[in-house]
Amino acid sequence: MTSVDLPTSAVEADDGLASSIDGSLRASLKRSEQIEADLEVHPERYRMLTGDRPTGKLHLGHYFGSLANRVRLQNLGLDSWVLIADYQVIYDRDGVGDLKANVFSAIADYLAVGIDPQRSTIFAHSAIAPLNQLLLPFLSLVTDSELRRNPTVKDELANSDRPMSGLMLTFPVHQAADILFCKANVVPVGKDQLPHLELTRLIARRFDERYGRAEKDRPIFPFADALLSSAPNILGLDGNKMSKSRGNVIELGMTAQQTAKLIKKAKTDSDRHITFDPQNRPEVSNLLMLAGLATGEDPVQIAEEIGDGGGGGLKKLVTEALNEHLAPIRERRAELVADQGYLVEVLRDGNAKADEVATQTLSEVRKAMQMDY
Ligand code: TRP
Q: What is the 3-state secondary structure (H, E, C) of 4-64?
């Protein structure tokens, strides 16, 4: 996932888009907190959908930042959908590497961390024809200028060495189809995805206004809200943003030895007294946070325990904490990877279920549009 710095200036928008991005972030946070409280009481009210681009192996940033939360939500009893956004990989590059291997590696990661195919539908959006067909009516509901000012798209364009492709400009509309085809109403994402959620709500509303309903008293599409996770932002081992391209990640599927080796090389600082101080000691604090996430302990407490143990003491502790926490996940992952037939079956079952739901939604859409011949 990419992150963007949300502009602080007021951004005037004509038709329902937020009038101030800042205000909109605050509103989204508040709404997200309210939903979070209600989820525990009424999990049956929610259908959750979220997903990843299959660009490579999933790492600790994905795990602590989002996968663990998905498992928690699934276990609360939400109807869960996990999307592999394979079409989102192709818009800014010619070659995508071994896409198929990435897809099955992601599925192995999902299952290994506890996403349960009995309770979560795992599917790839390229395989769902009726989902993709929603793109056409949805495209009729947005303007060129609305698409061009999406800050996340702008940010991705800036980080790409290719010109804006038609797909890149419109991928947030396709993302709205990802969310709306199954009528998901909660979408756990990072704040970089908020512009897409806002567009999704706009499309749902405009569809209702312009094309009407399949049944008189009920709009076809719900309003989907973001669930903004409270997970801390995890840095890579060099103190920069954790990303595969920087080579600073620990992948879920790495061995304990590989993990130890990487942590040994991690950046720390020269103060032997370990303290949790994210402002002034980002690298040390990041390692403490990883240890905290792995053990469930408070990073401040962990720092006190290490005391004057220095970078060496810290690294030893983080390595042990992570390897211990990840051991069962890795063991299960290795079993899954050895059974490709099962991974294929999980994806085919998920695709079949997604296709059924998308077909139903598309038929409602066609009815509302008077195209149900
Ligand atoms: N854009 C998301 C990302 O970059 C992936 C994604 C695609 C997604 N479709 C989605 C996330 C629908 C949530 C809902 O990570």
A: CCCCCCECCCCCCCCCEHHHHHHHHHHHHHHHHHHHHHCHHHCEEEEEECCCCCCEHHHHH
Domain with 151, as residue range(s), is: 10-231
Mutation choice for ligand 1 from 50, 84, 201, CB with most ligand atoms inside 8 A: 50
Q: Both 220 and 282 in a single domain?
A: no
Does the structure show a pLDDT above 60 at 112?
yes
Grade residue 229 by pLDDT with cuts at 50, 70 and 90: confident
Q: Which of 1, 48, 88, 92 to mutate to test the pocket of ligand 1 (most atoms within 8 A of CB)?
A: 88
Q: Which atom of ligand 1 is nearest to 2's Cα?
A: 4
Decide if pLDDT at 176 tops 70.
yes
Let me know whether 171 and 250 are in one domain.
no
- What are the pocket residues of ligand 1 if the criterion is a CB atom closer than 6 Å to any ligand atom? 1, 49-53, 83, 85, 88, 175, 178-179, 187, 189, 193
pTM for the structure as a whole: 0.91
Same domain, 191 and 59: yes
Q: 193-207, 219-233, 304-318: lowest mean pLDDT where?
A: 219-233
Residue 365 lies in a domain: no
Per-residue pLDDT tens for 262-297? 999 999 999 999 999 999 999 999 999 999 999 999
Q: Which atom, in ligand 1's list, is nearest to the CA of 175?
A: 9
